[in-house]
Design goal:
The complex is a heterodimer. By secondary structure, chain A is an all-beta fold. In chain A, strands 2, 4, 5, 9, 10 and 11 form a six-stranded mixed sheet that branches. In chain A, strands 1-3-8-7-6 form a five-stranded antiparallel sheet, with no helix packed on it. In chain A, a hairpin with a 2-residue loop joins strand 6 and strand 7. The radius of gyration of chain A is 13 Å and the shape is globular. By secondary structure, chain B is mainly β. Helix content of chain B is 0%, strand content 47%. The chains are: A mainly beta, B mainly beta. At the A-B interface, strand 5 and strand 10 of A face strand 5, strand 9 and strand 10 of B.
Chain lengths: 112, 116
């Protein structure tokens, strides 16, 4: 069964600090891996999309890594800001054109 | 202002009642999707459509129905057969529906449905 597991479930950090969120998946075959940011009560917004051949992709202060051999990804947030408080969702695309497997998300709170 | 518009933001359903959630997009996308989000769980696909007048069931279609009469619109009806409808419902769209090809998926702002 295709699964995407994220850790930790929740995280509290101080403003200005860095943090790393983890994503492990069992989706096979693999097409791409996506990270989304979702503010409370809003729809998810895309941060990065990575294919099998990409092992790092950045979007401002967000840097995603992918290890397709171990089926792991991470999202690193640098110099956190209060506006980074949100849920971060890892999503994996398999071989069916319209099927995505979503992780349960990591809820990040950045405190002043 | 391009994007996906969902309405209403909040909706309440009485027992035995059908309710319809609206989703409109002006991105000229062929593919549209409906997802259900429960607290702490991953999004689950309810229905999707890649072309007008055609749609396919997702993983949890029971108790839901959709129509795709226009490219821009993909309304979702939550029927009385759906016994646990309380959830956050998200509509999304993509250019062609081939999400294996790094195609971006755009989401609306969601509708929170609660049972009275």
């Amino acid at each position: 069964k295709n699964q995407v597991e994220q850790s930790p479930q929740s995280l509290i950090i101080l403003e200005g600090k860095n943090c790393t969120l983890q994503c492990n998946y069992t989706v096979s075959p693999f097409s791409n891996l996506r990270w989304y940011k979702q503010d409370t009560g809003r729809g998810p917004v895309s941060l990065t999309i990575m294919t099998f051949s990409e092992n790092t992709k950045s979007n401002g202060r967000y840097t995603a890594t992918l290890d397709a051999d171990t089926k792991q990804s991470s999202l690193h947030i640098t110099a956190s800001q209060l506006s980074d408080s949100a849920s971060y969702i890892c999503v994996v695309s398999g071989d069916a054109g319209n099927m995505l497997t979503f992780g349960g998300g990591t809820r990040l709170m950045v405190k002043p | 202002d391009g994007g996906i518009t969902q309405s209403p933001k909040y909706l309440f359903r009485k027992e035995g009642q059908n309710v319809t959630l609206s989703c409109e997009q002006n991105l000229n996308h062929d593919a549209m999707y409906w997802y259900r989000q429960d607290p702490g769980q991953g999004l689950r696909l309810i229905y999707y459509s890649q072309i007008v007048n055609d749609f396919q069931k997702g993983d949890i279609a029971e108790g839901y129905s959709v129509s795709r009469e226009k490219k821009e619109s993909f309304p979702l009806t939550v029927t009385s057969a759906q016994k646990n409808p309380t959830a956050f419902y998200l509509c999304a769209s993509s250019m062609t529906g081939d999400l294996t090809a790094n195609e971006k998926l755009f989401f609306g702002s969601g509708t929170q449905l609660s049972v009275l």
